[in-house]
């Protein structure tokens, strides 16, 4: 990685421990003897990306440790939910929440990563 560059990785943990996923990414993709770990920012969606949609929908997922249960909670509110709909739903609900002045935690984490590069 060139001097002054920064990498931001957003990863779906798919239920694995976030710290294990981060370690795997660092160990498999970065030579930290050459690259400064502070220039690699890893943002985890845990237990899966659907947790971000649940936050935007203001659904209570505290204590839910697996993606299947998060999807089940979402399906109670969006009856025909399927994973391929996720990007469009996140975009739509993110716009709606930002319009009313709400900034979700995952967006704060992304902005913080960008600022710290």
Summarize the structure.
The chain is mainly α.
- H and E order: EHEHHHH
Proportion of strand residues? 5-15%
Count of DSSP H/I helices: 5
Uncertain segments of ≥5 residues (pLDDT<50)? none
Major β-sheet strand ordering: 1-2
Rg (CA only): 16 Å
**Kindly, what is the distance between the CA atoms of the first and last residues, rounded to a whole number of angstroms?**
13 Å
Shape: globular
Q: Give the number of domains.
A: 1
Let me know the largest β-sheet. Answer: 2 strands, parallel
> What is the SS-derived class?
mainly alpha
Can you characterise this structure?
It is built from 5 helices and 2 strands; from the N terminus they run βαβαααα. The chain has a two-stranded parallel sheet with strand order 1-2. The protein is mainly alpha-helical and 117 residues long. The protein starts with 6 loop residues before the first strand and ends with a helix. It has helices spanning 18-29, 50-56, 67-77, 86-99, 105-116, and strands spanning 7-12, 40-45. 14% of the residues are buried. The mean pLDDT is 91. The chain has one domain (7-116). The radius of gyration is 16 Å and the shape is globular.
């Amino acid at each position: 990685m060139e001097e002054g560059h920064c990498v931001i990785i957003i990863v779906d943990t798919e239920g694995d421990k976030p710290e294990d996923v981060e370690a795997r990414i660092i160990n498999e993709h970065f030579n930290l003897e050459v690259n400064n770990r502070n220039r690699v920012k890893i943002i985890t969606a845990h237990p899966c990306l659907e947790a971000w949609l649940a936050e935007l929908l203001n659904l209570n997922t505290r204590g839910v440790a697996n993606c299947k249960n998060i999807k089940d909670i979402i399906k109670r509110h969006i009856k025909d939910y399927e994973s391929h709909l996720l990007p469009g739903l996140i975009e739509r609900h993110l716009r709606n929440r930002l319009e009313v002045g709400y900034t979700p935690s995952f967006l704060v984490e992304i902005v913080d990563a960008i600022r710290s590069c």
